[in-house]
Design a protein that fits this description.
Number of domains: 1
CATH superfamily: Vaccinia Virus protein VP39
Structural class: alpha/beta
CATH architecture: 3-Layer(aba) Sandwich
Number of strands: 7
Largest sheet: 7 strands, mixed
Order of helices and strands: HHHEHEHEEHEHHEE
Low-confidence stretches: none
């Protein structure tokens, strides 16, 4: 199961953010453009990097070593999987999935569960590295312990997956430059284009 890889290499995973500060900052800027408010849950919170930058209330993940790092970042954490979210119906204002769908066993079940725990009018924010982006092709070609177990989706496939239970409102996209280019901080755009990091905002 994929979470065992994250459990084993939690520190290695987390070091990516410090080694790729400009990339990570662009991804945070894209998420901040979505102005998350209210009670939120990040499913697949990992080490809590994004939740800590966005003041997300709660994080869910099956990898306990990852959760320890997230807890040290001030996140309230709980062990569990996105296919069976351990909360009652319609309790959250939003659910956040940052590069989570590509690592779960049943992405449709995760979308189902997200719809169940989000209140009416609430939001799902699903961020992906599109398979049809320069970054997706780059990661798929790397012999990494993490990317080897990932299933990358095209932007169209991700939009279709989210639309199964939510109504897509917009996308926020960033990383217009490629993995071989010199990285720079850029303003994310509100458009569904296969850049290196795309966040889909959808309403219940």
């Amino acid at each position: 199961m994929s979470y065992k890889v994250f459990d084993k290499y939690a520190e290695k995973y987390d070091s990516w953010y410090s080694r790729n500060k400009v990339i990570a900052e662009n991804e945070v800027l894209a998420l901040k453009k979505l102005r998350l408010k209210g009670l939120g849950l990040e499913v697949g919170v990992g080490t809590g990097f994004f939740s800590s930058k966005l003041s997300v209330n709660l994080g869910l993940d099956p990898a306990l070593r990852m959760l320890k790092i997230a807890k040290n970042r001030g996140i309230d954490v709980i062990g569990g999987v996105g296919e069976h979210i351990p909360f009652r119906d319609e309790v959250f204002d939003y659910v956040l999935l940052v590069v989570t769908l590509c690592f779960v066993k049943d992405p449709r079940a995760v979308v189902d569960e997200s719809a169940r725990v989000v209140r009416k009018g609430g939001r799902l924010i699903a961020c992906i590295v599109p398979r049809d982006s320069a970054w997706g092709k780059y990661y798929m070609g790397k012999n990494s312990v993490f990317y080897r177990i990932a299933k990358f989706y095209s932007l169209g496939e991700a939009l279709e997956l989210v639309s199964y239970r939510f109504k897509v409102k917009r996308c926020v996209s960033t990383l217009s430059f490629g993995p071989q280019d010199e990285p720079f901080i850029e303003e994310p755009i509100e458009k569904c284009v296969p850049y290196g990091f795309v966040c889909i905002e959808a309403l219940k």
